[in-house]
Amino acid sequence: MDNAVALVQAYLRVNGYLTVTEYPIVESIPAGGFQTATDLDVLGFRFGHSCTLQTPAGSDGAGVVCEIQTDPGLDIHPGTPDMIIGEVKEGRAVLNRAASNPGVLAAALTRFGCCEPTHAVELGHALVRHGHAQTRHGHRVRLVAFGSLPPDAPARGVKVVLLGTIIDFLRAYSRQHWAQLQSSESKDPGLSFLMTLEKAERGRRARAASTSSTSLKGDRS
Fold first, then answer.
1. How far is it, in rounded angstroms, from Cα 161 to Cα 174?
2. Helix or strand or coil: residue 23?
3. Which residues pair with 36 in a beta bridge?
4. pLDDT tens digits, one per residue of 43-57
5. Within its chain, how far is the Cα of 43 from the centroid?
6. Measuring CA to CA, which residue among 119, 142, 118, 139 is closest to residue 130?
7. pTM of the model
8. Which of 60-69, 126-135, 185-194 has the highest mean pLDDT?
9. Which of 2, 5, 1 is nearest to 147 (CA)?
10. Secondary structure (3-state) at 72
């Protein structure tokens, strides 16, 4: 998994999505046999009521508190299941040709069982035309392009999320929920790396404060 995909995966997970990365789409070829059509960088699914349960252990469920902090820029609709088919670039946030292929999109939707195969084909074409679609079960499906820079010519309806925005959100999240994250021992590569950076910065600030305090004591003596 490359660094950009790791960052996007951490971002989606913090926002309540279950993720699969670098998922291969295999197609048959006329001469016989099979070939890989593309790898989809990230697939994410978020149930409509995703949140973090904060009820104390042993509680009978009374007074349940369940909250989640999500990025407004991701345009999450509370109560609506949401599936993201994402392309991740370190340069401009654009979709590659295969990710704009209705057949590839239909194969991904069918493999993950979001809908009947015939409806998946319809959704694949709708995604190419509009960048988003809705299943007969009320699930939202959308294409999202992640990258360091915006595209020269945005594709119609395709959501764009910049990696800089993701880093800002994750760093703010890690600072706000530092105690909780330290207890979780996360193995997520993107989030773990940002936590290491945060730990290093906290250590540097602590050393600077200690040095400053020692210097002030020396001045007084």
1. 19
2. strand
3. 26
4. 999 998 877 666 665
5. 9
6. 142
7. 0.81
8. 126-135
9. 5
10. helix
